[in-house]
């Protein structure tokens, strides 16, 4: 009899830009995730635009039944900053995407983040792909919120101190560093894992050959993923000098869906720099005298495993429900 893999029940918090969009495809269309709700937050683009982008991405994945709840419109204390220079004015490479079929839900994202794990204690995995504003706002109302989730994976920080928005900081943490600190103060390493920008910049980079492979798949999801990330490719070439473009949010989603893709982790105490010069930089304390670890940090993922999941997902027909074969090697 065929072995079936139970799908991972997910809540996803996102500032949907072009890499968040690909992460949503992985969550909704790989057959590995069971997305119960998507919540949105200001980040890459204003929250209205990010909400629209999340609705479009889920539609491309064949999942118009997943509710999308708009959340906080601005960081806790800072002025809003976007990453439209990276992802395009619409956050999706300005390729002229049509309006989504489904509208956003009226219930606020923070209420969703608070209520779903109370209905399903310990069952849901939360994956955050944007600034941590919604999660921090929820934590102000329920200090134990993170413990109510099965696990929380965040695309956040740059553990090697090489930044994308400043010399040493990663965008999601830099955009709302106070929120990131609130999350860290409630975190424990058994419940919270951060996957930083550093992890997506090595083996998981989408090289020109990978981009061609994606484009040549020619399916609706592959064409969408390829087209919307052209501006990121140009930005990466000009600013970060990568041999291709990075996909930090999809890498994070891949680790949530397939934790074995994380091949190096550490448990450490992390805080966030709030001063202007180092705003959003991770302060990682590896001294013997450091406070007890509050976080699991992923330091390396399998680039090959990540890309295989990406290509396999994009090759699928949108709306295909079943999980992929857990042991494809047995049938070769
Ligand atoms: C992160 O910031 C955004 O530009 C991406 O969507 C990702 O979440 C990378 O620093
Ligand atoms: Ca994001």
The tally of strands reads 9
- Given the structure, what is the number of helices? 14
Principal-axes geometry comes out as: globular
Order of helices and strands: EHEHEHHEHHEHHEHHHHHEEEH
Helix content: 25-40%
Mean pLDDT comes to 95
CATH fold topology = Inosine-uridine Nucleoside N-ribohydrolase, Chain A
In short:
With 332 residues, the protein is an alpha/beta fold. It contains 14 helices and nine strands. The chain is globular, with a radius of gyration of 18 Å.
List the topology elements:
Layout: E1 8-14, H1 18-29, E2 33-40, H2 47-60, E3 68-70, H3 84-87, H4 109-119, E4 125-128, H5 133-141, H6 145-148, E5 151-155, H7 171-175, H8 177-186, E6 192-195, H9 197-200, H10 208-217, H11 220-228, H12 230-240, H13 248-257, E7 262-272, E8 282-285, E9 295-301, H14 303-314
Parallel strand pairs: 1-2, 1-4, 2-3, 4-5, 5-6, 6-9
Antiparallel strand pairs: 7-8, 7-9
Helix pairs in contact: 1-2, 1-13, 1-14, 4-5, 5-8, 10-11
For the structure shown, list the relevant keywords.
disordered C terminus; globular; alpha/beta; binds beta-D-ribofuranose; Inosine-uridine Nucleoside N-ribohydrolase, Chain A; binds calcium ion; nine-stranded mixed sheet; 332 residues; 16% strand
């Amino acid at each position: 009899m065929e072995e079936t893999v139970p799908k991972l029940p997910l809540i996803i918090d996102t500032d949907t830009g072009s890499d968040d969009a690909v992460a949503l495809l992985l969550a909704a269309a790989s057959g590995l995730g069971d997305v119960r709700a998507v919540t949105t937050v200001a980040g890459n683009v204003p929250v209205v635009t990010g909400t629209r982008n999340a609705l479009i991405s889920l539609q491309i994945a064949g999942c118009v039944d997943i509710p999308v709840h708009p959340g906080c419109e601005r960081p806790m204390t800072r002025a809003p900053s976007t990453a439209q220079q990276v992802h395009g004015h619409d956050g999706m490479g300005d390729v002229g995407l049509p309006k989504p079929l489904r509208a956003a839900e009226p219930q606020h994202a923070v209420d969703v983040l608070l209520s779903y794990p109370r209905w399903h204690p310990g069952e849901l995995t939360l994956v955050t792909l944007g600034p941590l504003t919604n999660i921090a706002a929820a934590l102000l109302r329920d200090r134990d919120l993170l413990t109510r989730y099965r696990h929380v994976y965040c695309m956040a920080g740059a553990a090697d101190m090489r930044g994308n928005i400043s010399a040493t900081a990663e965008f999601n943490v830099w955009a709302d560093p106070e929120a990131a600190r609130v999350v860290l103060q409630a975190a424990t390493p058994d419940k919270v894992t951060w996957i930083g920008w550093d992890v997506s910049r090595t083996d998981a980079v989408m090289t020109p050959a990978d981009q061609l492979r994606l484009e040549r798949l020619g399916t609706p999801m592959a064409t969408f993923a390829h087209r919307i990330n052209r501006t990121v490719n140009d930005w990466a070439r000009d600013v970060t000098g990568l041999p291709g473009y990075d996909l930090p949010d999809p890498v994070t989603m891949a680790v949530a869906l397939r934790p074995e893709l994380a091949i190096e982790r550490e448990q450490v105490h992390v805080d966030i720099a709030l001063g202007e010069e180092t705003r959003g930089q991770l302060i990682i304390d590896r001294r013997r005298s450091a406070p007890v670890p509050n976080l699991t940090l992923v330091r390396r993922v399998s680039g090959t495993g990540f890309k295989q999941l990406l290509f396999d997902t994009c090759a699928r027909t949108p709306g295909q429900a079943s999980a992929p074969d857990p042991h494809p090697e047995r049938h070769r």
